[in-house]
Amino acid sequence: MQITTIGLDIAKNVFQVHGIDAAEKVVVRKQLRRGQILGFFEALPRCLVGMEACATSHYWARELTKLGHQVRLMPAKDVKAYVKRNKNDAADAEAICEAVRRPTMRFVQIKSVEQQGQLMLHRARDLLMRQRTQLINALRAHMAELGIVAAQGREGVKELLKIIASEQDARLPVDAHASLVVLAAGIQALQTMIGSIERRIIAQHRSDEASKRLRSIPGIGIVGATAIAANGRIFPRSGCQRTYRGHRENDVHDPNQTKLQCGLY
């Protein structure tokens, strides 16, 4: 029997395959190691392959598409309704195989390598910003224990960094000062890395027409525009401002503004 549809439950090392023919009879139900996946699908006639949109799914979708298969990605929460028994790899693969054939199923667009690279900039920036916030909170807490506090916001952080940079401040014991210097250096290093990523995001925005159109919508900045464009979720060219729910009559928007406000302390 020729396989027409496959549900592929992907993982880090062990994958589960569930395949059926045109009569919906189960033809294959087996586990494959990571290194066997491409060889298995290369030997198959072209068929429909369903996967959950999760970690590494876009990579595998691209690779299987190169082999001529029709690959569709689905949100995991939409596939869950088709699991018939206790959750395991075999049940998940069967549910994927069932869900991918439903005419009302919602599918996720397969991202290109370039799109994923652009989104990695945003994820890396988000991680670094969270780490910077942790260091700033630790710095404030340690200095408050010594009776040194500063106003909220970036100006307060700058004031604390100046105190740490000054070795003459008698309020800082030697050991405390040594620890605070390390935290201050970490904050400044993270700020440098965040700035580097933000410059790449700005360059990406200036070279992307879709991102520029999104940026013209009140309430959407460079970070949001480039992230939406990289995700492939683009507003229609006509009437895009009317479709944006956050639009308000008195919104102030400067289309020439390129500064990333959220990149500050």
Describe this structure in words.
This protein folds into two domains: 5-99, Nucleotidyltransferase, domain 5, CATH 3.30.420.140; 114-263, no CATH class. Helices cover 49% and strands 11% of the residues. The protein is built from ten helices and five strands; from the N terminus they run E-E-E-H-E-H-E-H-H-H-H-H-H-H-H. The chain has a five-stranded mixed beta sheet with strand order 3-2-1-4-5. Helix 8 (209-215) packs across helix 9. Residues 234-265 have low confidence and may be disordered.
Tell the overall outline.
elongated
Q: Give the low-pLDDT segments.
A: 234-265
Structure classification: alpha/beta
> What proportion strand?
5-15%
Total domain modules: 2
- Would you report the number of β strands? 5
> Helical element count?
10
Provide mean pLDDT, rounded: 87
What radius of gyration results from the CA coordinates?
26 Å
Amino-to-carboxy terminus distance: 63 Å
* Major sheet attributes: 5 strands, mixed
What proportion of the residues is helical, as a percent range? 40-55%
What is the N-to-C succession of helices and strands?
A: EEEHEHEHHHHHHHH
Enumerate the strands of the largest sheet in spatial order, edge to edge or round the barrel: 3-2-1-4-5
Short synopsis of the structure:
By secondary structure, this protein is of the alpha/beta class.
List keywords for this structure.
elongated, single chain, 10 helices, Nucleotidyltransferase, domain 5, 49% helix, alpha/beta, five-stranded mixed beta sheet, 265 residues
List the helices and strands and how they pair.
Layout: E1 5-9, E2 14-20, E3 26-33, H1 37-42, E4 48-52, H2 57-66, E5 70-74, H3 76-79, H4 89-99, H5 113-144, H6 154-165, H7 174-206, H8 209-215, H9 222-231, H10 240-243
Parallel strand pairs: 1-4, 4-5
Antiparallel strand pairs: 1-2, 2-3
Helix pairs in contact: 5-7, 5-9, 7-9, 8-9
